[in-house]
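help with this record:
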Amino acid sequence: MATLTVHELYKNYADSLALHWLVGKENGERQILLKNDQKLANIGYLNFIHPHQVQIIGFYELDYLGSLDEQAYGRSLNQLFANYNLACIIIVDDITVPEDIRHCAQNYHIPLLMSKLPGENVISFLHASFAKLFAPRVTLHGVFMDVLGMGVLIMGESGTGKSELALELVSRGHRLVADDAPEFSHVAPKVLSGTCPLPGMGPFLEVRGLGVLNVQALFGDSAIKPDKFLRLIVHLKHMTAESIRDIDRLQGSYGVRQVLGVEIPEIYLPVAAGRNLAVLLECAVRNHSLKMHGYNAADDFCAHQHRAMMEQSLPEPHPIQSHLSH
């Protein structure tokens, strides 16, 4: 179980959500408890049956409260603020906050914040942010990049040329996410998000012979990306001539790696003199994208070959039969 105080919520997301305090800043140490199996059950619209820890109140919720008679209105406010799980209330939709809600927040010592954004945006943003903040994490050795819109982790033993390949890919218009030790978090079923674990270190890439480079300073802001979903692992590997001959000529060298319980496709690229790894990696990404959409070039090749063999094996028509057919 993890915790997040209301003060931390405000500090982390005030700019993104256009938040400001209305009441209860002195009570900002109230904690939001986030269980591993209930991350997304802590934030939501006004709910008296299953109250959320972060209650979102917008135009329709205030309209509902305003439609109640005086006694029902008072009971509803007391029920809302007396919930011992309640950490804070966020008023959304840039609406005017009734004084009754302000007074209840003061009396019950509940932090009251306001956002000008629509409630759906606030809820979606906090859901995604909380999932990333408390998701299981793992650090892998390699260079994580955005290649043709796909998150690709380049792995391999020391000296296989991971950083040189990353630098060439950046020069070809692709983007660097993190070098050496990217961190991956399990943010959703079958989804891993990767980023640089150290703030401000994302643009740096260490290349042997050149030292540490700032690819953002060299190539511009478009050369970096703060985070990306991991979809493919490309493993660079020194291979002997015999090992290369053993690779399946039709299907290539593919596998699957388990990362935080998620299966990530892995491609093994032999490292050898004269091989253009940047072009090979780009083709690997394009080919993997085609496979994700249901097209497999090897299967298509086999189907064409089979049809050609079947056509050649058909007996030629007898000359008389051919003449009669005309």
